[in-house]
Each structure stands twice: as C-alpha cells, then as structure tokens.
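[Help] Beginner question about ligand-bound structures

Sorry if this is basic. My supervisor gave me a protein sequence and a SMILES string for pyridoxal-5'-phosphate and asked me to "get the holo structure". I don't really know what that means in practice or what format the answer should be in. Inputs are pasted below exactly as I got them.
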Amino acid sequence: MIPLCIPKMSGNEWKYVKECFDTNWVSSVGKYVDLFEEKFAEYVDAKSAVVTMNGTAALELALRTLDIGVGDEVIISSMTFISPVNTIKYVGAEPVFVDVCRDTFVMDTNKIEEMITPKTKAILPVHIYGHPVDMDKVMNIAKKYNLYVIEDATEALGSEYKGKKVGTIGDMGCFSFNGNKLITTGAGGMLITDNDEWGNRAKYLSTQTKTVLDNGAFYHEEVGYNFRMPNMLAAMGVAQLENIKEYVNDKRAHAKLYNELLKNVKGITTSIEKEYVKNCFWLYSILVEDEYGISRDEMMEKLQANGVQCRPFFQPVHLMPPYKECKHGDMSITNEISIKGINLPSSVDLTEDEIKLICSLIRL
Ligand SMILES: Cc1ncc(COP(=O)(O)O)c(C=O)c1O
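Answer (accepted):
No worries, everyone starts somewhere. Holo just means with the ligand present. The predicted complex, written as structure tokens, is below.
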C-alpha cells in the first residue's frame, strides 16, 4: 500500500524524546516547549509563538485571544476540514461561508465582501492542501471593514505568499502537527503572531491564566484553558523542524513530477501554484473532470484496488447538519470540486517509482 501521507522521522526525534524520559521532564513545561516555540517563530519569521496540544486548540485560542464570541460572525470557506469551523462555534460565534477558487481550491476573495455584515468580526482564510489564499485581497478587505484575520495555515506550513510564510500575514496564524502534517509531534499545534500583547495573552489563556504569587500559590484572574503541549512532544517538534526545509523541497519535487506525468491526461486537472506563491503541496490533488470517462469515486476504487491510498476532497461544511442553517453565498465551485477532487499520496518519503506507478494508473 502506498499511504496517503505519513510522517518522516529520521533525525533527532528519538534522541530528544529519550532525553525527556531520562531527565523526567515529560510533562507540560521543559526546555523543549520553549525551544519549539522559539525555533518555530524563527522558521516562519514571527515575533511570538505559543505551542498548543493540537491545531484546533490553536484556532480556538486565536479566537479567544481576539475576544471573538457570541454575536460575532466569522467568514470562512466551506471547503475545509471542519476543525476551524467548529472552533468558531466553540466561542459562540457564527461561521459565514464563502465559495472557493476552482484552480487553487481556497477561499475566493472576490466573494468575501458580499457576506460582510455589521456583525462580521473576522476573516479566517484556510490554506487547504498547501496553496495560499490571496492574502493581499483578504488584508485589504479586513482593513476596509476593520476585521481581524486569523490564518488557518495547518495544511500549509512551509508555503509562502509573496515571499512571506503563510500564517504571518494575518493578525494570527495557526498550525497543526497532527501525524499527517508536514512536521508532526503526534498531536500538536502552534499559534503565531507579531503582536507581543496578543502573544502574551494567548500564552496566559492557554496555561489556565496562572499567575504565581510571592508565596508560590496560584492566582487566576479569569477563566483559562489547558491547551499546553507536553515537553516530550515538543522535543519531537524541535527535531522535526531541523529537517523542515528538506521536507518542503521533497514535496515540491513530488508535485512537479506528478504535474509533468499528468499534464496531458484528458479530463484530469492538476494542482497549480500561482506566480506569487510557493506551494508546499501538503496533499497533491487533482480534479477528475466529466471528460475523463469514469467518475472520481470509480477512479478512487481503482487506485485503492491497486494499493494506492487516496482521499476524496472535503465535503462542504455548509452541508453538514450542525452548519446547514448558517449563512453562505453561492457555493457552486465548492459543491462541484467536492465531488471531483482527490488527494493523492504525498508523504515526504514518496519515491519517483511510486509516483510513476500512481500516474500510470491514472493515465488508464
Ligand atoms: C484545515 C485544518 N484546520 C485545522 C486542523 C486541526 O488540526 P488538529 O487535527 O491538529 O486539531 C486541521 C487538521 O487536522 C486541518 O486540516
């Protein structure tokens, strides 16, 4: 079986994790927690980084830090993993859905303004499968209407928009280190921001709003959360970060080969990279168009029967029971690509021969 996307752990992961065991620093404080935040901030070029137990927690923390809650609306695409939409609900706000672009699969920024109301508080662009949203447009709209921007960069670590790492363009950026992500800590997340005040507040909220009094007792001024990542997992993260540049290069090389081998296949639309971005191609994706001859689901069956693990695109969130009543604009592209899209194997360690085999199955 060629897996969809599995981690690569060939560096110092075990050495650093073992050190946590050997020294008994296995829980939520320790040198690797601090080091992971520091090194991550350095890699993406952000002032502050706050590590969390998963990407969903990072997103919830971002919303809470910016005081987004009951009565507020947050604009987001419906073509996404459900996590960021759920976090909007966790804080009591309402998601408002916009359509996506057919070529990049991410938020269509031309459709944001029509969904803005006096209740709109933030835009939450999700850079799905690795391609960045057109952030200049998002930031201009945010400025015009005085909105916050929280980037869900969980699927786009390593991607760049006009030379800047995604996640650093909006007010806050969130990442995930789940097992299928570019780098993994088993489970984990990170919130980044260039605003020190927000960074400090996010850390405070994520650590139970704990203040230590002179006599060592804990004092809590307001309700806090336990979103902390254990030192052991942060140790894995530090080791993974040491090889991140190589991982991004490998994934980009895989996407290039996929594109070359699939470019002339009638009825297959390949992944793109707009001229102003660098796509990390977290999950290399294709659309199976009507002219292809067989449906997306039939193609998936064929790939799977031949040992190639693949996954259909996200089902639109605005069609899921908890979100059916939420406001949304025209969703024609979202609805269309959700039944045509496939994610193909995209592990860092995927080989050229495996890509050739997958493409030969797709070429019929
Ligand atoms: C777009 C998106 N947002 C958020 C998340 C949440 O991350 P986590 O699973 O670490 O909570 C994920 C992935 O899992 C995701 O794909």
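A couple of things worth pointing out: The first helix runs from residue 13 to 23. Residues 54-56, 80-81, 83-84, 126, 128, 152, 154-155, 176, 178, 189 surround pyridoxal-5'-phosphate (CB under 6 Å). Feel free to follow up in the thread.
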